[in-house]
Amino acid sequence: MTEIINQNNDFFNLKKRIVVKIGTQVLIDDDGKLSSASFRKITEFVDALRFKKKEVILVSSGAIAAGRNVLNIETSAKFLTIPQKQALASCGQSLLMKTYSSHFKKYNIKTAQILLTKDDISSRKRFTNARNTIYELLKNNVVPIINENDTISTEEIKFSDNDYLSALTANLACADLLIILSNVNGVYDKNPYLDNSANQIKIIDNIKNFIDDFKDTSKSIHGTGGMKSKLESAYIASEAGIDTIIASGKDKKVLKSLSDGKITGTFILSSCEEISKKKHWLIFGMEKNGLLVCDQGAIEAITINNKSLLASGIIDVKGNFKKHNGIYIANEQNKIVAAGISNFDAEEIKKIKGLKSSEIQVMLNSIHTNGIGIAVHKNNMVLL
Ligand code: GLU
User: Fold this and answer.
1) Is residue 150 lining ligand 1, measured as CB closer than 6 Å?
2) Residue 162 above 50 pLDDT?
3) Is residue 111 lining ligand 1, measured as CB closer than 6 Å?
């Protein structure tokens, strides 16, 4: 299958916008500090992709590791406290960007820094703002370099890792391809570091089934993600109709093949049932802060008849969410059937649940009837 794709240049020609995720391991030496040789390889790779008329967006880790070039914190990566990581990241992020821009200068490539938190992705407004900024940067021939805003991301509001951030970015930027570069050249059937009979898996055509059977065999020391998180991110990208390649960012030959349009590492085919960008965001990007338990009639209305969720069908409200927050919708057996954006605060829904629109109109003393009892509009809802 990879041969078929490789022989068919159309495959690569069709990929116009590419998100390249660069793991910390790709950028550092054995002593855990930034490696100039690695930056040379990566910037050469990006230049080669741009030469082929690709728009490139980088999602780069490495801020925490770069901070070690600045601060004298000797604690090993595994035992760093959150404040230590945040201090290292805030010193390291500017060094990371400086290193990228000085290497890209050789190719006359301008760069821009974008730091995101999970909240930024969860808010539709900020998500759209980030998208518009990225579009404008690409229009101006700039390479956006995205990282998590580690300094203000505490454990509860963090992305699980930059693999996940790269998949959400691929959807945000409407990319055609996600390339995850790591220190391993793709996915193997066994841990290639521990077992030299391990075989590289060249293609995964059903990522969901593959993940169910996959036993995680690797965990990087300096970054946060292992192979499982890369596969889960490939799944998220796949649901948005985006193919993923997982390959080595350390090996010059691999990078050359990739920029020549030949697939190396592991190729993960996107799902043929691509969902819309907005639905993708509703499922994977938007944070859910509550749950609406609904009666059978309401569940049938939203799942079979493609209707909005009315307050009259809500029987219980869980969580302390605000108007415009994300929520789940469950049936009477507490099985989640949908997710969406609530038109009301949790406290407001508690007051109007079970009421007909006309009763709500009287209660709110409103002259408007149109849409008054809609708790979640069908355009802001996705079935799960
Ligand atoms: N944001 C972190 C950094 O720049 C990396 C997180 C990750 O690798 O997943 O160091």
Assistant:
1) yes
2) yes
3) no
Residues 111 and 255 both lie in one domain: yes
Mean per-residue pLDDT of the chain: 90
CA 29–ligand 1 middle distance (angstroms): 16
Six-digit token string for 223: 């970054």
Distance CA 352, CA 360 (A): 6
Amino acid letter, residue 337? V
Take residue 146 and report the two structure tokens written for it: 């995205």
Atom index in ligand 1 nearest the CA of residue 222 equals 8
Going by pLDDT thresholds of 50, 70 and 90, the confidence category of residue 363 is confident
Report which ligand 1 atom has the smallest distance to the Cα of 67.
10
Of 248, 279, 310, the one marking the end of a domain is 279
Q: How far is the CA of 36 from the centre of ligand 1 (A)?
A: 18
Ligand 1 contacts CB of residue 47 (under 6 A): no
Which amino acid type is present at position 159?
F
- Distance (Å, whole) CA 144 – CA 129: 14
Cα distances (Å, whole numbers) of residue 340 to 49, 287, 356, 383: 38, 10, 21, 9
Whether 153 lines ligand 1, by a CB cut-off of 6 Å, is no
Query: What CATH number has the domain bearing residue 379?
Result: 2.30.130.10
